[in-house]
Amino acid sequence: MIPQSEAELAEILASAKAPLNIQGGGTRGFAVAGDTLSTSGLTGIELYEPGSLTLVAKAGTSIAEIETLLDGEGQRLAFEPMDSRGLLATTGAPTIGGAFAANASGPRRIQGGAARDHLLGVRFVDGVGGIIKNGGRVMKNVTGYDLVKLMAGAHGTLGVLTEVSLKVLPKPEAAGTVSVAVADLSAAVAAMSAALGSPYDVSGASYDPAAGLVHVRVEGFAPSVGYRSGRLAHELARFGAVNEQVGADELWQDIRDVAAFHDRAGDVWRISVKPSDAVVLAPALQAEALQFDWGGGLIWALVPEGSDLRARMGQTEVPGHATLVRSSQQIRAELGQFAPQPAPLDVISKGLRQQFDPNGVLNSGLMG
Q: Phi and psi (nearest 5°) for 360?
């Protein structure tokens, strides 16, 4: 099913008698039982005001189309939404609605915030066909449910996005990357923490264990980038040999998309922890390969099929969240894609789903 309008989508959901698999561009590998309902027919940019840094688009609009438009005005999606196709071996085109439904946030999250922090307003259809609008085209305080933030990261379980209003930002004049050769994960986390604690406005801090390199990014006006890169290189030299380079866009795209795991067999997990806990947790994961982002707070782990990383995390007592990003349907059914929620939060989540999807038709079972 590919509705061509919000009204058509509302009719489908109002008459739905069985669970549906809600899908955007089909690139993220999420799949549940039921007929597929795609938002790929809801396309088009409704409004773009470069001067006010605001864009409104239908949910099925491709990110590529939006980025092309923004690039013409020297602007960008600052939250760096990940392209999952290489990691998950999927096809299709990433959509702006899918990016917000997954709260897909790249390396710049440590500086610019998550995808949800750039979302100003939403239109969506709930599980009984009701059309709901929340938010607007400017940042403001809200009372009651902040449905804008609630929809970001809900993966289509509370409603099907039809339109999003978002904040965009200017592209920086220049970017620089400082790479540091480090001895181990402990030194890597220390180096990233030093960079993030510095006054140099770091917009990316990642560690590649295979190469033994920490990468730190700064962006802004060219003279400022040159100065800050130089100062960071000087301060991080105590951790190992330092290399400075201009730009390195391809490097950061590979970090964003976890390119190191492409075309490699095994399950892929995405783990969020306190950066300092990464040093304790990483050995317990028994992973074939690891990648660290967000200063060590985001861990990507490639492990043999069927490995239960939540159980391994439990043995360390390190608090955090582990999401099974890539695996067989059988393993997903056994382990669950998303981590079980604490009892109080689970009660709230079930109450919200009952409110917005009383018939259980929206990606039923995906998030508990």
A: 65, 45
Stretch among 67-76, 192-201, 325-334 having the lowest mean pLDDT: 325-334
Give the C-alpha separation, 175 to 249, whole Å: 8
pLDDT value of position 145: 54
Determine the Cα–Cα distance for residues 98 and 230; give it in Å rounded to an integer.
38
- Residue 220's closest CA among 262, 265, 171, 261? 171
Report the amino acid identity of residue 279.
V
pLDDT averaged over every residue in the chain = 91
Question: How would you classify the pairing of strands 20-23 and 35-38?
Answer: parallel
Place of tokens 């006010």: 52
The DSSP symbol for 62 reads: B
327: helix, coil or strand? Answer: coil
For residue 220, the SS3 value is: strand
Q: Which domain holds residue 251?
A: 174-256
Burial letters 353-367, b for 16+ CB under 10 A, else e: beebbeebbbbbebb
Task: Choose from 131-145, 215-229, 341-355 the range with maximum mean pLDDT.
Answer: 215-229
Cα distance between residue 41 and residue 21, in whole Å: 16
- Tell me the residue type at 338: F
**166 and 17 in one domain?**
yes
CA 190 – CA 193 distance, rounded (Å):
5
Q: For residue 349, what is the enclosing H or E element?
A: helix 343-356
Angle at 28 between CA 259 and CA 343, to 5 degrees: 110
User: Cβ atoms within 10 A of the Cβ of 243, count?
Assistant: 12
Q: State whether residue 299 is helix, strand or coil.
A: strand
Residue tagged 């989540």 (tokens): 349
Give dist(CA 100, CA 118) in Å, integer.
9
194 Cβ partners below 8 Å, 6+ apart? 235, 236, 239
Assess whether 165 and 18 both reside in one domain: yes
Q: What are the respective helix, strand and coil percentages of the chain, to the nearest 5?
A: 35, 25, 40
Q: Are 283 and 191 within one domain? A: no
| Position 137 pLDDT exceeds 70 | no
In a domain, 214, yes or no: yes
Which of helix, strand or coil describes residue 226? Answer: helix
Q: In total, how many domains does the chain have?
A: 3
CA distance 351 to 130: 18
